[in-house]
Design a protein that fits this description.
Bound molecules: 5'-O-[(R)-(carboxyoxy)(hydroxy)phosphoryl]adenosine, zinc ion
Radius of gyration: 20 Å
Number of strands: 10
CATH architecture of the largest domain: 2-Layer Sandwich
Number of helices: 11
Largest sheet: 5 strands, mixed
Number of domains: 2
Low-confidence stretches: none
Strand order of the largest sheet: 3-2-1-4-5
Mean pLDDT: 94
Length: about 325
């Protein structure tokens, strides 16, 4: 493979990030600033604050990424950016900066789908999964099962009809008084919980198909949560919730592997950092004799390394999604 170093920017939500990837040496550098502290007091991402903070950070982060890789703009073969889906004002920051660099240095501009970045993230690890594989994408905004036949060749197998898994984690955590984003806090609380005390439904597992529904689960938790619940009650409920989610995802992954006949499962997106989910899927993969691939936890959540890889792969295969500057809040994979 030719090196073709690509600079990538990610500003779709509440992480500002830059990264450099080339086909010879792999990931050269990546930098990131999380806005979690900025939004924590509001209990969720405030779009206007996100856009402004991206503007403040993006230049420093991309220059730091170049410096770490000892590269200059003139060494680049392309500039990639997350074009969507995401917060439109936030997306516009990365898009404008990427377009400016591309214009100034006469480089191809590569628009990358945020979820494509997530589902190619395991390609940043060693060993890489081989195509085709089944990808489970579990983030704050999406829950997807995808058949990945190659770069740019994706078939949607199933998706959530309502709340995304991460959203269900976050809303449930909020009900229990945990800080935003609640997923990791809920997971920590669940560690001290008694298994089996609370048994919550495994939505949509009793019928065929690969779609999900998680909005009912938070209602089930709300109903189970007694007034003046003790810390132990909360931990037990967190444990029950986590088990219901994990089991539901595992059942659908198993079905997707069976249906496609693919020999590998990859997991990506922020919820992919969940240890119980990882353990449950490892179990499933072993029983099926399938390969199981996870990005490192830092590449499960939003980052620019995955966008750099996707951008580079598009450029290397000469199939850039679009050379035109655009952003879009909604964008089917
Ligand atoms: O992919 P991501 O960083 O952002 C997007 O939504 O695109 O995913 C963030 C989501 C949040 O809902 C967060 O609570 C959840 O991933 N999350 C977790 C864990 N770590 C992050 N959920 C459960 N267990 C975790 N350990
Ligand atoms: Zn994401």
């Amino acid at each position: 493979t030719r090196p073709m170093p690509v600079l990538a920017l990610e500003t779709s939500c509440d992480e500002t990030a830059a990264a450099l990837y080339d086909g010879e040496r792999g990931l050269l550098s990546h930098t990131l600033h999380s806005q979690i502290a900025l939004h924590a007091q509001y209990g969720g991402v405030v779009p206007e604050l996100a856009s402004r903070d991206h503007i403040r950070r993006v230049n420093g982060l991309l220059r730091e990424a170049l410096a770490q890789a000892s590269l200059r703009f003139s060494d680049l073969s392309g500039v990639a950016y997350t074009a969507g889906p995401g917060l439109i004002g936030a997306l516009m920051v990365g898009a404008s900066v990427a377009a400016g660099i591309a214009l100034a240095h006469d480089l191809p501009l590569i628009a990358v789908h945020h979820m494509e970045g997530h589902l190619l993230a395991p390609m940043l690890e060693d060993p890489k999964p081989k195509f085709p594989f089944v990808a489970l994408l579990v983030s704050g905004g999406h829950t997807l099962l995808v058949s990945v036949e190659g770069v740019g060749r994706y078939t949607l197998l199933g998706e959530s009809l309502d709340d995304a898994v991460g959203e269900a984690f976050d809303k449930t955590a909020k009900m229990m008084g945990l800080p935003y984003p609640g997923g990791p806090h809920l997971a920590r609380l669940a560690e001290g919980g008694a298994p089996g005390r609370f048994k919550f439904p495994r939505p949509m597992t009793d019928r065929p198909g690969l779609d999900f529904s998680f909005s009912g689960l938070k209602t089930a938790v709300l109903t189970a949560l007694p007034a003046g619940a003790s810390e132990q009650d909360k931990a037990d409920i967190a444990r029950g919730f986590e088990e219901a989610v994990t089991e539901t995802l595992a059942i659908k992954c198993d079905r997707a592997l069976q249906q496609t006949g693919h020999a590998a499962l990859i997991v990506a997106g922020g919820v992919g950092a969940n240890q119980r989910l990882r353990a449950r899927l490892a179990d499933l993969a072993e029983r099926r004799g399938a390969g199981l691939f996870f990005p490192r936890p830092a590449f499960c959540t939003d980052n620019a390394a995955m966008i750099a890889y996707a951008g580079w792969a598009r450029l290397a295969e000469a199939r850039p999604a679009s050379g035109k500057l655009f952003t879009t809040a909604r964008w089917p994979l």
